[in-house]
Write a structure and sequence with these properties.
Helix content: over 70%
Strand content: under 5%
Radius of gyration: 23 Å
Distance between the termini: 30 Å
Length: 102
Amino acid sequence: MAQIEQENRKIAETLREQVALELLEFDATRREFQISQEIARRATVQHRLLEIDYRFSDQIDSVTYLGRLSQLDQTKASTYRAWARLRTRLARIQMMVLGSDT
């Protein structure tokens, strides 16, 4: 009986360590996502200003405008990927803490 309790304690300790490490990774991923969000916000504002220039001045041609639009799309895609990584980390923590039945 004592051996079973000792094994249970080892398993619990291992799980605590794994959860703690996963929480650290989650926090780092969260910060990366927040940075990505801010970059996307700024890129969106810059694009709005560029769009005004494109519509009302001759300084920006269609090729430049479309190139910048493509850059904005890439920035947004990067933000969505960061969000997906964050959700994956959260799901891992939930599975470790609550089990896979949830």
